Amino acid sequence: MExxxxxxxxxxxxxxxxxxxxxNELWTLRRLRREHRLGGRHAxxxxxxxxxxxxxxxxxxxxxxxFLPTAAETESWLAGEWPALxxxxxxxxxxxxxxxxxxxxxxxxxxxxGSIAYRQGNPYGDARVVWEPSRLQQLVNLALLANADEDRxxxxxxxxxxxxxxxxxxxxxxxxxxxxxxxxxxxxxxxxCHALDLTRDRLTxxxxxxxxxxxxxxxxxxxxxKRLSLHSSAGNHTVAEAAGLVYAGxxxxxxxxxxxxxxxxxxxxxxxAERQVLPDGGGIEQAFWYQLFIVDLLGLVxxxxxHRRHRVPRAxxxxxxxxxxxxxxxxxxxDDLPRIGDCDDGYALSRHLxxxxxxxxxxxxxxxxxxxxxxxxxxxxxxxVRLIFxxxxxxxxxxxxxxxxxxxxxxxxxxxxxxxxxxxxYTYTGDPTWRRWFRSTAAHNTVRVxxxxxxxxxxxxxxxxxxxxxxxxxxxxxxGRILLLARHDGYRRLGITHWRAIAFDGSDHLLIRDYLAxxxxxxxxxxxHLGVEAAPAGAGFVLSGNDIGARLDLAGGVxxxxxxxxxxxxxxxxxxxxxxxxxxSILVRYAGEFPHQFHTALSFDDAHRDGMAALELLLERAMExxxxx
Length: 629
What we know:
It is built from 14 helices and 23 strands. It is α+β, with helices and mostly antiparallel strands. An 8-stranded antiparallel beta sheet has the order 9-10-11-12-23-16-15-14, with helices on one face.
């Protein structure tokens, strides 16, 4: 029944052209099923017939990596251990290791991939978790280790070769969970190619290893080409799949369909680079982690084409440039990037890759990204302060798949410590209750009205009734004080508009005013999710943790402190995909007549509170016109 409901809701956002495309996909799946039943048609090819597999000179570009593993990480990798999104996983010679669900211990079926139930509610586990080790990105780590540590090089290369051989033998073409997603196939091709290129002069069994790579590429690339994510499914998956086709077509021109793969992949990448990387450099999916994923993939393709002396399409190069600028405004590197919107902690190639972090951060302060709908403010005090204010659209229409209901949410980091956090994602196809909560308005630093989200959750990757949000005013005065004013209409069906004004003195003090314009009796809940501890103190809370002391004062309702509660859910965060842990949340609840206001004051330096008065005056002037609306 859940599967039927999912298909019905997906049909609701499809055009006539897409419905025809989906019918063709069903026909393709039927032909693939027949091919699988007949044993496939993937003949082995000799490596010496392929330029990429010959010689000892690297044929791929040198990439920027930040690779300084600890001794413990080195030993862990050489023991075959690889994180599976919060679950333990370790390679073993037993081929069954690739089919055991790390999160549940259940065994995914080894049958035709199109017959496997993998969506939410399946009996095996979260497909995203079992896919992680099969991206084979651990091969890249082993290859980097081999080049960085001469004493462990042979050990690392032998393990790399054994893992690749094991995967190819345990996963015949079209068989099992690892062929369900064309994106996973593409990422596997990209990782294996880079790993073997990095160690081509160190391989201990080159004939066997290059043969395994050829079997991987020649079985994966045709499947990717037949199962591209298009129409309403066109998102980060599409970019990964197209990148995989470009890699296969560029590095293995001797394969019969190589030219078609490369040509089609580049055509898709040009289109998606312009569409998915918005003019201001942000991502159309409204998920920071997937923006990094996309920019990394585009950057890898750009580097590959340049190295092979192929023309780089201008649309692709421009998207990489503006995407890098957006990411540099948000963070100093991937470890510092806030997990806003969906995040599955997956990488285009490696967590050590830094291809998207070149170039300076924008000099503007505030840095406004009008297309994506974010403003980034950096403080000038002794401890660096970073504010990220969300005033953008829900996500990528028509399904808004990776979006969260977080309009007007605020993320605050001080001196390397996250004070106001985004609780992150936790799961995609695991427990639906938790999936709903981590996407919901209640899981973000904004206001919920009458217990509703700002949009309606239809499935685990679909929304309806998306909101419209906008930055109405941005002003910086001669003293460096910054004022931001924004609104959203996610509660228009209730006759309510949410306005939020933020005033920041540039160093120590932050004021937030929430104004809920409308009429009638409603329940409003202002929610702050904290990355530190909180203790009640007067009309607010003292915040402490990670050498940070701050004070949060609140007005406009009844304040309550929450941590790790399940009825209802409140006070949680997910530090990485598949893991959740209790965290501190503060709720301010008001039940009564509208319009209504909430007041929040956050001070990073409690010894100097005089600056608050000037900010109060700034906010009063900004909010005054709203009271007459």
